[in-house]
């Protein structure tokens, strides 16, 4: 397993991590994602560790805490120092007025609750699940600094921030000498390339490591469905894909056509090619893979250890490229001074 440096930190992480949103299945949304129990979670974690996937991503709001509980139970008895546990907080956990957001009150309570559910003394990477515009960012960052100083968390990151949200937070950390966000967890896929417009150049400039969620485009890039095989009326993908951004079917089908051509050329699967493409993109340090069963997990693990050819990368880039919004299309005409991000 390849390891990469997580942003401007000394932490090395595997290029693949295992997402535990399928653990628990509490509530309609997460039931559609999966309902993995402790026994199956332990088996999946065994397979991950056998392949060098030592990083596990969860969140307090996944199945209202059940994901963290199951992950904690599945990791029990293992060497804690050999795994990287990442979780998130910000979204609402109950109908109580302060059980939401990134206030000092909520973050300290959320961290304590996550530690208990996970059955651990510390969290390796603690991430803000979304931006809270009602809480001063100074309050959020100071609370995270206090949690770091107390030894309860080791590194901090954010997810789903706008570019200016992230930059403002980084500036405040620099101003006050607080720990800074080392990672950004964001949606990025062959059919969702908005991340490239502003967040990617920011991540390059500020040395932020990108952790990708939903790399298969909300299940649209599994290869099971295309223009000739529509999603069945009762498929769970109707629930999971609908919460993602709308994507034109013909655009998805065009991308899938090229993915399937390259699958035939390489002997790899459509998901493997989709994941491998992401691992070659600028700033991407880690891609979160999810699996409802062992077969899916083993297929996703096959995304590493090989590379796509320049011709194949060009075909994927071309077919998945979309018109840029302003001012990015205008900036693209001034590449002499605003170069397009490229992988090193």
Layout of helices and strands, plus pairs?
Blueprint: E1 3-5, E2 12-14, E3 16-19, H1 28-33, H2 38-50, E4 55-57, H3 66-75, E5 84-89, H4 104-118, E6 123-128, H5 137-149, E7 153-159, H6 163-176, E8 183-187, H7 199-206, E9 209-213, H8 237-241, H9 249-266, H10 270-279, E10 284-289, H11 294-301, H12 310-320, H13 328-331
Parallel strand pairs: 3-4, 3-10, 4-5, 5-6, 6-7, 7-8, 8-9, 9-10
Antiparallel strand pairs: 1-2
Helix pairs in contact: 2-3, 2-11, 3-4, 4-5, 9-12
How would you characterize the overall build of this protein?
This protein has 344 residues and is α/β, with parallel strands linked by helices. The protein has a single domain (3-334), classed as Alpha-Beta Barrel (TIM Barrel). The protein contains 13 helices and 10 strands. Helix 2 packs across helix 3 and helix 3 packs across helix 4 (104-118). It is globular, with a radius of gyration of 20 Å.
Write down the secondary-structure element order: EEEHHEHEHEHEHEHEHHHEHHH
CATH superfamily: NADP-dependent oxidoreductase domain
Number of strands: 10
Estimate what percentage of residues fall within beta strands: 5-15%
Note the total helix count: 13
């Amino acid at each position: 397993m390849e390891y990469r440096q997580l942003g401007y930190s000394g932490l090395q992480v595997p290029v693949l991590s295992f997402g535990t949103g399928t653990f628990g299945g509490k509530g309609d949304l997460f039931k559609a994602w999966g309902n993995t129990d402790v026994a199956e979670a332990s088996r999946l974690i065994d397979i991950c560790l056998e392949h060098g996937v030592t990083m596990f991503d969860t969140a307090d709001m996944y199945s209202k805490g059940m994901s963290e509980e199951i992950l904690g139970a599945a990791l029990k008895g293992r060497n804690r120092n050999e795994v990287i546990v990442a979780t998130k907080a910000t979204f609402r956990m109950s109908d109580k007025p302060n059980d939401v957001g990134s206030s000092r009150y909520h973050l300290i309570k959320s961290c304590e609750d996550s530690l208990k559910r996970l059955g651990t003394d510390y969290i390796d990477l603690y991430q803000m699940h979304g931006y809270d515009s009602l809480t001063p960012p100074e309050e959020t960052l100071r609370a995270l600094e206090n949690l770091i100083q107390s030894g309860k968390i080791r590194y901090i990151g954010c997810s789903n921030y706008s570019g200016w949200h992230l930059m403002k937070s980084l500036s405040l950390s620099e101003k006050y000498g607080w720990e800074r966000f080392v990672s950004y967890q964001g949606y990025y896929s062959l059919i969702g390339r908005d991340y490239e417009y502003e967040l990617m150049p920011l991540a390059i400039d500020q040395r932020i490591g990108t952790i990708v969620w939903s790399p298969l485009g909300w299940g649209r890039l599994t290869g099971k469905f295309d223009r000739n095989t529509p999603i069945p009326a009762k498929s769970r993908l109707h629930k999971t894909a609908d919460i993602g951004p709308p994507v034109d079917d013909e655009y998805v089908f065009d991308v899938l056509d090229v993915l399937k051509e390259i699958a035939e050329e390489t002997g790899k699967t459509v998901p493997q090619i989709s994941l491998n493409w992401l691992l070659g993109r600028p700033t991407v340090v880690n891609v979160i893979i999810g699996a409802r069963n062992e077969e899916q997990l083993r297929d996703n693990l096959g995304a590493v250890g090989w590379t796509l050819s320049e011709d194949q990368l060009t075909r994927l880039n071309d077919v998945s490229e979309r018109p840029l919004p302003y001012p990015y299309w205008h900036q693209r005409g001034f590449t002499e001074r605003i170069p397009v991000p490229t992988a090193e």
